[in-house]
Structure formats: structure tokens, C-alpha cells
Specification:
six-stranded parallel sheet; alpha/beta; globular; binds NADP nicotinamide-adenine-dinucleotide phosphate; 33% helix; 329 residues; eight-stranded mixed sheet; 9 helices
């Protein structure tokens, strides 16, 4: 019989609820503790999701029955919270954006390595069945010449503080622009040149952001994120032998795959497995299995891919002139 893995959740916000629900779908994952800044908030959360224990962040990281902690706080706090977990000997699955900048990411990776602890960025898209299938189809498209992806929505009031707050890593790029950037990196690799411009919000973070990647072989990527307008939030990957479209919310489990071997009237639908939960069960299952196998890094979302994403986000921000308080430390 395989070992049960004890899970904890740090931060009882919106995404934490989705993960708590999806962890029930993962064999051998046992959600044992949820933590909030105010323990009574965690107690209410625990009641809703039938979790046996609740408390504050320190209570969580010192629990002997918790093996891995899902860090679900705003990205400006990931550095502090992941450190807290690792320093107390816990493996970590940390939400995107992994950190504010590559320097913080490198420090966390070094700490995990020194302690021999598992650390992974919770990039759920990479584990979803439609995306796995998309990666397969992309290998049949010939030379990829163009990647286009956009992610845009207009937040409805009340707008969460983290969305525009520079101290919490606010702005569209780190919040949702990470998905188009992830896609281009996954398909085309590290760009040779990056150009980017932003529309600043009143707090100075990017309300929207337009990015171009150029590659020495002539491939191009156009990527866009916005908190100003609702968009299709789709993606196209076009090669010399065909095009693949990932439809609305291309990064999530409701996306469909449309394959075009030729012009638009050649469309074929590609069916893929539908998620049973919110879609977070796939990454949670992967982490559970990695820990059962005693791994300190994921072979599917290795830390070098997370670091490349963070370095690319830094380069994009440099082009746009977007500096966070954490960059000045
Ligand atoms: N993978 C995805 O699909 C996805 C989707 C949405 C968000 N995310 C990521 O998940 C993270 C959390 O997003 P969310 O939408 O769940 O945010 P949220 O609802 O605002 O929750 C964040 C939680 O962090 C905790 N927190 C601790 N210190 C805080 C502070 N100073 N200010 C605000 N909150 C603080 C709070 O929990 P307690 O008070 O309970 O401690 C809060 O409930 C972000 O990094 C975001 O990018 C990922």
C-alpha cells in the first residue's frame, strides 16, 4: 500500500477553496491542516471542507503530520511564506506567480536544495489533459512560426487588494500574463529578443501589457494581458503544417482544442479528458506521487522552467519600466 501524503494549505482565500475541493479527488492525498492569519477564519474554512485541523501559519508549518504545504497567498508574499515552510522542513507547492522576481525564486530554490526538500510552482496548466494533448499535437505542426495568446478580464467589484497593490505583486503580467508567457516559452523556448509595453494603473502596476518575443529562426510570439477588457483568452500555435487553437480560457480545463491542417474551413475538434474537479487535482496528484517516490523536484515542471519564466518576466518588466518594492531589496 502506498504512503498517504499529509497536505496543508497556507492562506484560506479563493484559490485555496478550489484546491481544498480538488484534493478530495486525489488518492493518497490527505488534507490535514488549513491555516489563515486569523485562526478563526481557518476554522470556518476547515468546517466547510471537512479538514480535521486549523490554525495560524506557524501552527501549520510545525505540524509533524503535514508533509507538503500548498502556498495560496498573493504572490508578493510567496517568498516569505515558502521560506517559512522550507525552514520548518516542509515540501512546498507554491501558486503562480512563483515569486516577484528571479532573485527571490533562486533563493527559494537554493534553500530547498540545501534542505533536500521538494519545491514546485503550481502551474496547473502544465498538468491538464487538454494541455498534455496540445503538446503532442504541436509536435506535428512542422516549424512553429507564430504563437499568439491573450488573457484579459475586467475584475468585478469588490476588486481584491492584490490585483493592483505593488507590495503584493499586483498588475496583469504576474497575475494572468504569466499564462501567455508560459505558453510561448513552452512552445518556442527562451526568446532571443523581448519587447514589451504597458498601460499603467494608478498604482503604477500594469493595467495591461503587450509583449513580443523574437527568435533567431524567425519565429515570433505576441502575448497580451489585461485587467481593462474582457477578452477571448485563447491561444494559437501556428506551424508550417497546421495550426492549433486553444479556445476560451486556454490555460484551464474548459478549453477546447481546434486543429486546422489548412485554412479556417479545415477545422477539426480534438477531444480530451474532462476534469472531474476544478482542474487542480492533476498537479496535486503529481506532487503527491513525486513525494511518494522521494523526489525533490518535479520532472514535469522542473525548477529550471520556473526560473526561466521568472527571468523572462523580469526582462519584460525591465522593458516596461515596472519595478516592485521587492526589486529594491
Ligand atoms: N492557478 C490558478 O488558477 C490561480 C487562480 C487564482 C489565483 N491564483 C494565485 O493564487 C494566489 C492567491 O490568489 P487568490 O485569488 O486566492 O487570492 P485571495 O482570495 O485574495 O487570497 C489570498 C489569501 O492570502 C492570505 N493573505 C496573507 N497575507 C495577506 C495579505 N497581506 N493580503 C491579502 N491576503 C493575504 C489571505 O488568507 P488568510 O487571511 O486566510 O490567511 C487571503 O485569503 C495568487 O498568487 C494568485 O496569482 C492562481
Amino acid at each position: 500500500m502506498s504512503k498517504k501524503i499529509g497536505w496543508g494549505i497556507l492562506g484560506c482565500g479563493k484559490i485555496a477553496k478550489k484546491m481544498a475541493a480538488d484534493l478530495r479527488l486525489v488518492a493518497d492525498a490527505d488534507l490535514r491542516f488549513v491555516a489563515a492569519r486569523q485562526p478563526q477564519h481557518a476554522v470556518a474554512f476547515a468546517r466547510e471542507f471537512n479538514v480535521p485541523n486549523a490554525g495560524d501559519y506557524f501552527d501549520l508549518v510545525t505540524r509533524p503530520d503535514v508533509d507538503v504545504i500548498y502556498v495560496a497567498t498573493p504572490h508578493g508574499l510567496h517568498d516569505e511564506h515558502v521560506k517559512l515552510c522550507l525552514e520548518n522542513g516542509k515540501a512546498v507547492l507554491c501558486e503562480k506567480a512563483f515569486t516577484i522576481n528571479a532573485r527571490q525564486a533562486q533563493e527559494l530554490m537554493a534553500l530547498a536544495k540545501t534542505r533536500g526538500l521538494f519545491l514546485m510552482e503550481a502551474f496547473w496548466t502544465r498538468f491538464l489533459p487538454h494541455y498534455e494533448k496540445a503538446r503532442e499535437v504541436i509536435t506535428t505542426l512542422g516549424d512553429i512560426r507564430y504563437v499568439q495568446a491573450e488573457f484579459g478580464f475586467k475584475p468585478t467589484p469588490p476588486v481584491a487588494d492584490r490585483i493592483y497593490n505593488p507590495a503584493l505583486g499586483g498588475g496583469s503580467l504576474l497575475d494572468i500574463g504569466v499564462y501567455p508567457v508560459f505558453l510561448a516559452l513552452d512552445v518556442l523556448g527562451k526568446p532571443d529578443e523581448i519587447a514589451a509595453v504597458m498601460t499603467p494603473a494608478t498604482t503604477g502596476v500594469d493595467e495591461q501589457c503587450a509583449i513580443r518575443f523574437q527568435y533567431a529562426n524567425g519565429a515570433l510570439a505576441q502575448l497580451f494581458s489585461s485587467f481593462s477588457v474582457n477578452l477571448a483568452t485563447g491561444a494559437d500555435i501556428a506551424g508550417t503544417h497546421g495550426r492549433l487553437r486553444l479556445t476560451h480560457r486556454f490555460h484551464g480545463p474548459t478549453a477546447r482544442l481546434e486543429y486546422y491542417p489548412g485554412p479556417v474551413d479545415t477545422r477539426q475538434f480534438i477531444e480530451t479528458e474532462r476534469a472531474q474537479g476544478n482542474g487542480y487535482e492533476y498537479e496535486a496528484r503529481h506532487v503527491t506521487q513525486c513525494l511518494q517516490r522521494g523526489l525533490s523536484e518535479s520532472p514535469v515542471r522542473p525548477l529550471r522552467d520556473t526560473l526561466l519564466l521568472m527571468e523572462t518576466l523580469d526582462a519584460i518588466r525591465k522593458q516596461m519600466g515596472l519595478v516592485y518594492p521587492a526589486d529594491r531589496i
